[in-house]
Design goal:
single chain, 134 residues, mainly beta, 7-stranded antiparallel beta sheet, 2 helices, 13% helix, globular
Length: 134
Amino acid sequence: MARMATFPDDYRDLLDAQFATLATVEPDGTPQLSEIWFLHDDGELRLSLNTARRKTQNLMQRDQCSLMILDIENPFRYVEVRGRARIEPDDDHAFAGKLHGKYNADVAAYDQPGDKRVVVTIEPTRIRPVDMSA
């Protein structure tokens, strides 16, 4: 199983990217895509998600997912991280606050009263770097 330690060195700059695309699987088997904020934190890719959102519900039902990080300056270059989502509560919003630091924005700003946040850690099973510009 691949770990972030094996993330290709020449793609590590993408770990600081501002956006990634998260793919989850809907109950009927179709893909669902969301543009998300993420943080490379303690060697792992982590997301702060609201439990009321479709993508979070999908991950709770089926932990398989894929995260694509596109090089905005060279859209022919990206990395795809396939794996499983480990979901943990973030009741005190500690991780949401950490993510807030990267984006200088409150990730919970659109949460409704009573909404809950979770930390989703992508546990990679495959890391696929692509550069079609070479």
